[in-house]
């Protein structure tokens, strides 16, 4: 009898031991699954891209079930842009998607579809169907875990899609505001010299009939017309340049560019505006020839001189300097009487940016942007530096050894 009791008791203990062991294994498995869910959820929350999320999901599925998975999406769907560069697990299969979608719609509230070899989970959120997650039927014992993973995936896709749409709307709004600013600025910059031309021409017409003719007045009016027309011409040139830059249609027409000669020609062109400034031209003893696009380099210097005039006062000093240093052609243009806050220096070359404390200055934020673009396509650099008595803009253009040429005067 005691032996029989021992056998029964032993059998009972063994069953209980196996039960406890199974419960322990189940708890450990559940804990492992929860850890994976937590890690996946945390990673999905931290990302704003699809690729890292898909890679993480691939790792989890491969580690837990030793199988692969696929995601079927509709071809040309509004979510294609997020999947195009993803892994091979993303299948753009319109026929497969449509077949699964028909079954999904017939199931009403159910989001899991079974067939002979695979299980499909609908990836949806906020009433939007993104696609179908497909995995081997061998994983049917872990439906709740896979469904939780797909649910996290759905929420993340929905969040990323929402953020992307929000960013697009913000970008569109910024573009509209930028366009309004540009149109307002251009309108003002065109109307001001145009109004000056009209007024000067009217006064000129009146003075023609005076006897005797006041030549000083006529000369002054003629200068006003010339300066206003030059301003309009420069604005139009800059607008054409900015359109070419935006369209990436600028092609460099290389030739030998004489920086010294450009200084002389542009000083003559700005003669009227520079009458009230002190101009100092400092050039090398030798004529420096730079191999580049002479039209663009001229426009670069022209914009820098115009900028120096705009942001300086009467009797201010403007220095134009060029020299060679460390295999670079350096162009340095300084004007006294102005200062740029350190917090604004990094933005002065941005398109349409205007210094906050100088909003009343007749500028549109185009010139320096064009300068930077011209320097960039010549593989150079441009800097702005504050000095005790003013501001300087320095351009550094690299000299290709095979195109480096200096002529002795």
Question: What does this 3D model show about the protein?
Answer:
The protein has 409 residues and is of the alpha+beta class. The protein folds into 3 domains: 166 residues, Beta-Lactamase, CATH 3.30.450; 71 residues, Signal transduction histidine kinase, dimerisation/phosphotransfer (DHp) domain (Helix Hairpins), CATH 1.10.287; 156 residues, Histidine kinase-like ATPase, C-terminal domain (Heat Shock Protein 90, 2-Layer Sandwich), CATH 3.30.565.10. It is built from 10 helices and 13 strands. The strands form 3 sheets. It has a 5-stranded mixed sheet, sandwiched between helices. A hairpin with a 2-residue loop joins β4 and β5. The protein is elongated and about 145 Å long.
Helix and strand arrangement:
Elements: H1 2-46, H2 50-65, E1 69-73, H3 80-83, E2 90-92, H4 94-106, E3 112-114, E4 118-125, E5 128-136, H5 143-208, H6 215-247, E6 254-258, H7 259-269, E7 278-282, E8 287-293, H8 294-310, E9 317-325, E10 328-336, H9 342-345, H10 367-377, E11 381-387, E12 390-398, E13 405-407
Parallel strand pairs: 1-2, 7-9
Antiparallel strand pairs: 1-5, 3-4, 4-5, 6-8, 8-13, 9-10, 10-12, 11-12
Q: What is the strand tally?
A: 13
Write down the overall mean pLDDT. 79
Contiguous low-pLDDT stretches (5 residues minimum) are: 76-87, 402-409
Number of helices: 10
N/C terminus separation:
127 Å
Note the main sheet. 5 strands, mixed
State the strand order across the main sheet.
2-1-5-4-3
SSE series: HHEHEHEEEHHEHEEHEEHHEEE
How many separate domains make up the residues?
3
The second-level CATH architecture of the largest domain is: 2-Layer Sandwich
Shape: elongated
Structural class based on helices, strands and sheet pairing: alpha+beta
CATH domain topology of the largest domain? Beta-Lactamase
Q: In CATH, what is the class of the largest domain? A: Alpha Beta
């Amino acid at each position: 009898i005691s032996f029989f009791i021992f056998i029964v008791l032993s059998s009972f203990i063994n069953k209980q031991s196996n039960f406890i062991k199974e419960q322990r294994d189940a708890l450990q498995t559940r804990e492992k699954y929860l850890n994976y869910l937590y890690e996946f959820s945390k990673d999905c929350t931290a990302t704003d891209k699809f690729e890292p999320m898909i890679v993480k999901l691939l790792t989890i599925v491969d580690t837990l079930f030793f199988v692969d998975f696929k995601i079927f999406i509709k071809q040309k769907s509004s979510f294609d842009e997020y999947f195009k560069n993803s892994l091979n697990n993303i299948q753009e299969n319109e026929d497969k998607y449509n077949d699964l979608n028909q079954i999904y719609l017939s199931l009403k509230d159910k989001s899991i579809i079974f067939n002979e070899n695979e299980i499909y989970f609908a990836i949806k959120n906020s009433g939007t169907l993104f696609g179908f997650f497909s995995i081997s039927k061998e994983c049917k014992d872990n439906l709740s875990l896979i469904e939780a993973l797909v649910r996290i995936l759905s929420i993340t896709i929905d969040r990323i899609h929402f953020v992307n749409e929000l960013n697009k709307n913000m970008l569109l709004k910024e573009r509209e505001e930028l366009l309004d600013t540009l149109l307002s600025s251009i309108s003002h910059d065109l109307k001001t010299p145009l109004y000056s031309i009209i007024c000067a021409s009217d006064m000129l017409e009146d003075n023609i009939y005076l006897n005797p003719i006041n030549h000083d007045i006529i000369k002054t009016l003629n200068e006003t017309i010339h300066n206003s027309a030059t301003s309009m011409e420069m604005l139009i040139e800059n607008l054409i340049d900015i359109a070419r830059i935006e369209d990436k249609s600028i092609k460099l027409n290389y030739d030998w560019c004489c920086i010294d000669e450009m200084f002389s020609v542009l000083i003559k062109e700005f003669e009227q505006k520079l009458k009230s400034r002190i101009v100092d031209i400092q050039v090398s003893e030798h004529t420096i020839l730079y191999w580049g696009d002479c039209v663009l380099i001229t426009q670069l210097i022209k914009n820098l001189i115009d900028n120096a005039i705009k942001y300086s006062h009467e009797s201010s000093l403007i220095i134009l300097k060029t020299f060679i240093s460390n295999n670079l052609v350096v162009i340095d243009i300084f004007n006294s009487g102005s200062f740029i806050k350190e917090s604004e220096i990094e933005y002065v070359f941005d398109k349409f940016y205007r210094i906050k404390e100088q909003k009343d200055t007749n500028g549109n934020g185009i010139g320096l942007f064009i300068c930077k673009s011209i320097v960039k396509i010549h593989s150079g650099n441009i800097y702005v530096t504050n000095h005790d008595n003013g501001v300087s803009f320095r351009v550094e253009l690299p000299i290709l050894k095979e195109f480096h040429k200096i002529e002795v005067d």
